Structures are given as C-alpha cells and as structure tokens.
Amino acid sequence: MLYPQEFDVIVVGGGHAGTEAALAAARMGAKTLLLSHNIETLGQMSCNPSIGGIGKGHLVKEVDALGGAMALATDESGIQFRILNSSKGPAVRATRAQADRILYKAAIRRMLENQPNLWLFQQAVDDLMVEGDRVVGACTQAGIRFRSRTVVLTAGTFLDGKIHVGLNNYAGGRAGDPPAVSLSARLKELKLPQGRLKTGTPPRIDGRTIDFSQCIEQPGDGVANQTENGARSAGVLGEVPVFSYMGGASMHPQHMPCWITHTNQRTHDIIRSGFDRSPMFTGKIEGVGPRYCPSVEDKINRFADKDSHQIFLEPEGLTTHEYYPNGISTSLPFDIQYELVRSMKGLENAHIIRPGYAIEYDYFDPRELKRSFETRAIGGLFFAGQINGTTGYEEAAAQGLFAGINAALQCRSLAGAANDFGGAWTPGRDQAYLGVLVDDLTTKGVTEPYRMFTSRAEFRLQLREDNADMRLTELGREMGLVDDARWDAFSRKRDAVSRETERLKSIWVNPRNLSVAEAERVLGRAIDREYNLADLLRRPDVSYQGLMSLDDAKHQNQELVDALVGDEVSRETTRAVIEQIEIAAKYSGYIDRQRDEVARAANYENLQLPEDLDYNQVTALSFEVRQRLSRQRPETLGQASRLSGITPAAISLLLIHLKRSR
Ligand code: FAD
C-alpha cells in the first residue's frame, strides 16, 4: 500500500540519532515521520545508562543549545551528576550523568509524542524507494510505502547485526531486538561503501547480591555521601550539576551513588583462561572494536603488565536492582563471565541478570557523505549516528540533529523557500564540536569506532561546555530550532553578560581607597595604580565574588544579587552569567590568540573547490595526491588540507591553480 500522506523528512530508526533528527526536522517545520522497529524502544540506551563525559558532554550541550532533547531528558532522569576534570581549565571540564534508563526513555518518548509536525510509526523498514539518483521514500516490512522528499537513516548497530557470546553467535540488532537484514542487503545493492565494526557490553548484576560494604562509594557532585562511620560528608562541588541550559537540579528525580571495585590477578587469570573460546581472539569477530572503550579481555591482553583495573558499579535506575559494571564489557563465554565477576571484591556472590556480549554490524564509509551528511551517491538520503562509524549516544545525537537540520533545509530549498544557509548548514571546526565531528568523519573516515575527545578540537579553548549556547543558540533560532522560552532565557543571559562586562570596565579601583588588608584578601597583593574591575578580574587569583565584596554598595550589581536569591532558573542563569564573565576575563589573552588563528586559517578554510574541478589537470601535484583528491572530492580547501597524505605544499599548489583558473 502507498500511504496516502507524503512527508518532507522520513527518519528511519528511533535511537539517539533518529530521535534528535526527527525532533529537529519537525521543529524546523518539516512534516516528519519517524519509522522505527518498536515504539517501546524509542530513546533506548543500548549500553550503560550514562550521558556525557569528556568531549561527549560538550556535544550534549551543543545539541541542547540548538533546542535538542538529550540534555533535558538527562536532567529529567539523572540519578548521579558529576563535573569531570573540575580542577582543570574550563575547556576540558565536562558534565557526566548516570540516568535512570526507564525515565530517560520515557522523557524522550514524551517529547516525541508532543512535538508538532512529527508522526510516529512502528514497523521495520526493509527497503528504500529510489527514483533515478534520488531517494523518494521508504518501504516497511509489511509493504507499506511512505513517500518523502528526504530520508535520514539512523539504523545504529542493527544493519546485519550479529551478537557473540563466546563461540556462540546469532543475528540481532542488540540483545532482545531483531537485526535489519533486508535493509542492509538493499544498501549493499545501492553500492554504498561499507565495512564491519563491533562493540560490546558487560554482564549486568543484581544489586541485591553485591556487598557494597566492600566497595568504595562515589557520590555525585553536590550530594552528601555516607562515610564509613555513618556521618554525611559533602560531594566534590557545592552545586549539583545540571545538563540543560533550560534545566534545574530540582528536575532530577533522586540521587544515587555509584560504587568502585577492582579487578585483580585472579580475575585476569580467569579472563586469560577463556582466550581460546573468545570470539575476538579466535577470529569469529571480524569487525574492529572501540579502542577507547575496549572489552576487558582486550585490556588484559594489551596491558598485560597491569595487575588491576578500576570497575565502576553503576545503578541502572531507581526502580530496578540492576547494576552496570563499567569496565568489564566482554564477549567471553558465560562460564568465564560468571567466574570473572565473582573474583572481584564485593561481587563474590553476584548474580548476573544479563550476560555480556559483543555485536558486529555494518557501517558506511562517512567519506562518501557530503559535509551535510547527504550521501554523495543518492540525493536526499542522509546518514547519521553509529551507521557512520561512530560509537556513543552523544555522537549519535549530535549527528542526528545535524542530519535532521540539513534534511529540513533541503526540503525548504526544494519547496523554493528562502534559505540563508545555502541549502545546508556546515558548522566550522572553530564553531562547535559538531563541526569537528562532521569534518573528521567526512574528511578522514574511520578505521575504528570514532568517539569524541576534547583533544580532537584544535580550537577547544573557545569550544567549551559553558558557552555552547553563546556559540549556537542564535543560529538555532534563525534555523527555527529554538522555541520562544529558550530564546527568551538565552537573550536574558546574553544581555546580562554584555551589560555586566561593560559595567566592570567602567568601575575603577583606586589604591588610595583600598586598605592593604582588603587588597591582599581580594587581589592577593596591593595595587600601585588605578585599575578597572574587568582588568583586575583577568588576574588568576581574583574572583568575581571577591571583587563584588570590595565595597558592597558600590560594586555589586543589584540585578544579579536579586536573581541569585530568586527562582531556580534565575539562580542557574545568574551563576552562568558570572561564569561567562570570569572565563572571558581570565582566558581573554589565549582566546584572542585563538581567534586570530581562526581568522588566518579562514582565508582558505572555507574556499569552495569547484565540483567539476579536474585534478588531473593540476599537473604540479603528484600523481598520488591527484588520485586522492579525485577520489575523495573535498568540498573546501580546508577539508582538502586535512586529508591524509595532502601536504601544505600540495595545498599551496592547488591554491595557485585555483587563482590562475579564475
Ligand atoms: P541505535 O541507538 O542503535 O538506534 C538504532 C535505532 O534504529 C533503533 O531504534 C532500531 O530499532 C532502529 N532500526 C534499526 N534498523 C531499523 C529498520 N530497518 N527499520 C526500523 N527501525 C530500525 N557506546 C559507547 O559509547 N560506549 C559503549 O561502551 C557502548 N557499548 C555498546 C554495546 C552494545 C552491545 C551496543 C549495542 C551499543 C553500544 N554502544 C556503546 C553504542 C551506543 O549504543 C550507540 O553508539 C548509540 O546507541 C548509537 O545511536 P544510534 O541512534 O546511531 O543507533
């Protein structure tokens, strides 16, 4: 049957990429259909129920700044929140939350069901409808054909998925879900270049069988923990962290601690004794696994000299006893899993609820995507999430949002509507981690599952978690992604930052009016001339609060003082305003230098390479370079410069050729 209604955007897959893609396209006004295997698994976390971490938290904040769902769903379901790297510089500080798996899924489903312009439909997609070189819809298992202008494919680990436990294996998309076999075959027919990757998950443990008295408690930040003698002590930071710019700690349902235990020599011996029945070491698994999230057998094999590894026991939710032992992802046979778990302190009597397993799946070479994530081969078909060779919910969500935006923009162009973004939005590497992610994938491709790190971003000083809204919310509003409530809150914050920054520049502190004791208390030492407050704030040991205490009546900003005792949102915003002002002052030298670097690089970064450029005519380039450029067809000179094997000298020669041929 041909479904009677047509859509602008069809999103296939309701995981982290698919849900953000569908929500983003619908927010932008595109008539959107989300087709997924099972409505009950929308927003399902396939592995551990945790969101964020270093680099990943940055992506979540960016998704949030563009009106996405992940951060708010985490605030609604989070049971432990921490700021990682809290003692380091602001560029590498990152939020990480443990979520209640069921509440997270419920929050995502509620957002999907209440999103105008979005329709949900439960059914496996077996085929894509293609006419000429354009996709025109998707066909489900039951033969229902849905027509659309664009399709965003976010099938995650499901394409030809194969699950391994020891030497046993069977077809599956993840434990308990079917694989997408027909769709995988269809994509192969369409000659989209693909490979195999693998990932894994640990056995889950019944918390009632864990002896927590043998483990180390790890409370969330800002939450009291139970010390050995029963007394309560404060967590690392005074405040409970919040993920969304529109969130508040009162949204968190309840806080729970995580726990720490360790592997030991016996654990390692047990693991080694299973190597001969490991699908990884016996060649049953062909796909490459994530280097930064390796299985425990991989760790023991690679780091043979280490006699212990830290294992976090993380609660899966408030209404379950299930615990996720983070650090022992494994596909070893079940008898080995049973022994290795019970060899650790506190887990001597542990009952495993679900065995660990590895999964192998198809992914598609992201170098065959345009910088908008539209496939080069088939117009209107976009790929996002794990299917592009990445790993992680956050990487998937960011890509989903991105592909959803670009599918919706393409629909606007096809409908002849004005489009300030030239048909696609492609953030720069200096603008967002999302820009780094998209550029890395489309330029370099992947050889192993790709995850985000702060070290991947050369301009990380300006790509911080704390300023993702300052970098992106205005753009999000222009594209139609940001609703009025978020826009109002953002505008208030932005205006407050600029007003307060100007005010600090206009207030001068004269050494004659400053006692030695006060100068030492607030500034660390006396001053020999007049300084304004903005200049003083640049000093490493001077804080905003300290400056305000110099002379209450004169220095305090009554508007901010009032907000700090106001409602939760006003308090969060005010803290964020002060944080912005402090960071901008303290790091202004470095940030200015980075801005200069960006400006210099921009000369060729965004220089478009003609689509019909015949690299064989650029005879000054070596044969290998010409071949590589012809094969990968970078869209800009900046992208060309990051291809492996392309030297700065080759870029200069290409630039000369472009100038001559203009
Ligand atoms: P998924 O979350 O996989 O969602 C895919 C969605 O598409 C599902 O809703 C599915 O039902 C639907 N779908 C698929 N095919 C079809 C079809 N033909 N028709 C209709 N619907 C379809 N990440 C980490 O960062 N660290 C880890 O340690 C880690 N371990 C993992 C272990 C396992 C066993 C698994 C399965 C995943 C693991 N991940 C891990 C990866 C993480 O789960 C993914 O990166 C993330 O979920 C990807 O999001 P996605 O939206 O791309 O795909």
TrEMBL record:
Alphabetical UniProt keywords: Cytoplasm, FAD, Flavoprotein, NAD, tRNA processing
Residues reported to bind FAD: 13-18
Pfam families for the chain: GIDA, GIDA_C_1st, SAM_GIDA_C
Keyword Disulfide bond in record: no
GO biological process: tRNA methylation; tRNA wobble uridine modification
Residue ranges of domain tRNA uridine 5-carboxymethylaminomethyl modification enzyme C-terminal subdomain in the record: 585-656
InterPro entries: FAD/NAD-bd_sf (IPR036188), GIDA_C_N (IPR049312), MnmG (IPR004416), MnmG-rel (IPR002218), MnmG-rel_CS (IPR020595), MnmG_C (IPR026904), MnmG_C_subdom (IPR047001), MnmG_C_subdom_sf (IPR044920)
GO CC annotations on file: cytosol
Family matches, as Gene3D superfamilies: FAD/NAD(P)-binding domain (3.50.50.60), GidA associated domain, C-terminal subdomain (1.10.150.570), tRNA uridine 5-carboxymethylaminomethyl modification enzyme MnmG/GidA (1.10.10.1800)
Top-rank lineage group of the source organism: Bacteria
Cofactor(s) the record lists: FAD
Binding of NAD(+), residues: 289-303
Main location: cytoplasm
One example GO MF annotation: flavin adenine dinucleotide binding
Cell compartment(s), UniProt: Cytoplasm
Assembly, per entry: Homodimer. Heterotetramer of two MnmE and two MnmG subunits.
Family: Belongs to the MnmG family.
Role description: NAD-binding protein involved in the addition of a carboxymethylaminomethyl (cmnm) group at the wobble position (U34) of certain tRNAs, forming tRNA-cmnm(5)s(2)U34.
Protein name: tRNA uridine 5-carboxymethylaminomethyl modification enzyme MnmG
Species this protein is from: Limnohabitans curvus
Gene that encodes it: mnmG
